[in-house]
Amino acid sequence: FIFILLAFSLNADRFFKADELKKLGLTDIEISQIEDINLKYNREKQQIYAELNLYKAKIEKELVASEVNLNEVEKILKESLEWKLKAEMLEIKKRIEIRKFIGEEKWQKITAWFKERRQNLRDKRDKNSKK
Questions:
Q1: What letter does residue 64 receive in the DSSP assignment?
Q2: Which of 41, 54, 105, 109 has its CA 20 to 30 A from that of 75?
Q3: How does DSSP classify residue 131?
Q4: What are the residue ranges of helices labelled H in 1-131?
Q5: With the CA atoms of 18, 32, 46 and 103 taken in that order, what torsion angle do they form, in degrees rounded to the nearest 10?
Q6: Distance from the Cα of residue 6 to its chain's centroid
Q7: Spatial separation of the C-alpha atoms in residues 64 and 68, rounded to whole Å
């Protein structure tokens, strides 16, 4: 369940439009605040993913060497884990901030709606893959 909520947070800007949030009972002020929160965290998230991309490049550099130094690859991976942790914590903080702002009742509506929408998308994808 936490992954569904994390996906909500990660993909809120992709999955939600203002009219959908209004249908769930959010006010224009709440929607605007959610957009502001998303923007704030997305800027930080971009910085983190830029760092993670640097680590991916370092790993790729090691892997194309004629002799791969697994100790160096492990060291780079361990360093990158710190940035992955920062990314996860950032998303959790964002989710908590939105939840506190809109209140528990509206948060439950959004998470239920999101879970239903994700299931509908999976069902649609599964149906299309069987064709």
A1: T
A2: 41
A3: -
A4: 2-15, 18-23, 28-63, 70-102, 104-129
A5: -90
A6: 6
A7: 7
- The full DSSP string for 6-40 is HHHHHHHHHH--HHHHHHTT--HHHHHHHHHHHHH
For the chain, the first-to-last Cα distance in angstroms comes to 30
Q: What is the C-alpha to C-alpha distance for residues 69 and 52, in angstroms, rounded to an integer?
A: 20
Q: Of 101, 98, 104, 109, give the one whose Cα is nearest residue 39.
A: 98
The pair of three-digit structure tokens given for residue 41, joined into one six-digit string = 């965290």
Q: What is the sign of the dihedral through the CA atoms of 88, 94, 98 and 100?
A: positive
* C-alpha span between 113 and 79 (Å, rounded): 37
Within 13 Å, how many C-alpha atoms sit on residue 103's CB side? Answer: 7
Angle between helix axes 28-63 and 70-102 (nearest 10 degrees) is: 180
Q: What is the value of pTM for the model shown?
A: 0.71
**Residue 4 near residue 118 (C-beta atoms within 8 A):** yes
Question: If you count them, how many residues does the chain have?
Answer: 131
pLDDT tens for residues 30-48? 999 999 999 999 999 999 9
